[in-house]
Amino acid sequence: MPRKLNIALISPRTGLYRFGTGVFPLTLRYSPLNMVTLAALVPPELRGSITIYDESVEKVDPTTIHADLVGLTGITGVSMRAYAYAEYFRRRGITTVMGGPHATLMPEEAARHVDAVVIGHAYATWPRVLQDYLDGRLQKFYHPPASIDWSLIPRPHREAFYGKRFVTTNATQAVFGCPHQCEFCVTPVVCKGKYERRPIPDVVNDLASMPGRYVTFLDPSPVENVEYSIALYKAIAPLKKRWGGLATTRIVDRPDLLDAMEESGCFGLLIGFESLTDCGNSTIGKGFNDIRKYRKLMQELHARNISVMGCFVHGLDSDGPDCFKYTLDFIHEAHVDLPRFTVCTPFPGTPFFRRLKREGRILTENWTLYDAQHVVFRPKNMTVEELQEGHIRCWETAYRLNSIVSRLNGSRTFLEYTILANLGYRLYCHGHRKFPPARMARDWRLPVTTPEDIARIEARPSPGAE
């Protein structure tokens, strides 16, 4: 009889988004899929206790965690905090495994702090990690197979999040990867340029099993195969769900796709407008964004009662200090329901990072500052201070009460959600100034972190070591 494993899965957060210290409203948080999927992938014969900890909705005291194995995940901005957890648990003799975007981008770095690194999708490798651990032959790196049978993905153990402070646990994913090669984006690097899809009946069954009416699709780029997307939306329409997800600006040219979205219950889309200039979009490999069609896209979506979270990036090589005005003018003229702003961030492992590194423009490799809200490189056409201050003021201006009223009065789309979301983001943006770079640089440390941990985690290898 195989030994049963007691497993703890931890998702760290930076102070800006951490429960108890952060400024991100609880009402805007939906549950992620990664940890509940890992829980579902544990073979029944090995399953003892599986406990999931998410710092965005709860305080985590590592001294109270008792497990055979601790799994950690995280994007670049939380990677150093993940390492702090790993160093602590290893001192206690507990085996640690790390996966997720940053571990995939920087596996050699992650391997200095954990016992095993899972690279890429873990659907096939996570069960093997657990068996190898029991057999005493844990490997340092686990790579995904050349192909994955997407029909074998188990139903996530969403019940592990029941009772936690998420607005919904109804999240799913139909499409993986992205066919585009945007210079700053981690998705094509993590997914190695692949663009893959689950069988539509599996997605329909997943949605049908969820309680309640509202669902969130977490697909990073779901509509690039239009035929698949339309077929999916037609298949889920009979479920009478209301769903939100992501899309690119290219949908403006496909009224049949827009109609299918509306008829299947779409209430909102996150769309990466990124830049208000052709030069800006072309520079980052997103030349398919046609700025002349932005307003038409907003009109088409609002006409179908679909709200828009519009995402905009500041600090591109074509951006000067006037980029913030262009962005604010657009969000007010087009009545963007929920604008979101990021500082262009050169995540390690991406072509953008490598280019800026060659140009000597990277200012810090303290990954905690790589949260897309702090400037970590030297901009081309403005100062660091102009970019950071302009970015924060853009948030503050967009979420003034008169701005909220003006935008939503022009949109009048799904107001029962967008009013609350705007008020939530108003709280969020006013918290930015509480997290200056000096505070964020130390934010990753735990109460149990030792000076030795700090030295190991903050150390950077010599050039070429990664």
Automatic annotation (TrEMBL):
Gene3D superfamilies: Cobalamin-binding domain (3.40.50.280), tm_1862 like domain (3.80.30.20). The keyword Nucleus does not apply. Residues 2-140 form the B12-binding domain. SMART domains: Elp3. Its cofactor is [4Fe-4S] cluster. SUPFAM superfamilies: Radical SAM enzymes. GO terms for biological process: methylation. Keywords: Iron, Iron-sulfur, Metal-binding, Methyltransferase, S-adenosyl-L-methionine, Transferase. GO terms for molecular function: 4 iron, 4 sulfur cluster binding; cobalamin binding; metal ion binding; methyltransferase activity. Pfam families: DUF4070 (PF13282). PROSITE patterns: B12_BINDING, RADICAL_SAM. Residues 162-380 form the Radical SAM core domain. InterPro entries: BchE-like, Cobalamin-bd, DUF4070, Elp3/MiaA/NifB-like_rSAM, Methyltransferase_Class_B, rSAM, rSAM_horseshoe, rSAM_sf. GO terms for cellular component: cytosol. This is BchE/P-methylase family protein. It comes from Candidatus Ozemobacter sibiricus. The lineage of its organism: Bacteria, Candidatus Ozemobacteria, Candidatus Ozemobacterales, Candidatus Ozemobacteraceae, Candidatus Ozemobacter.
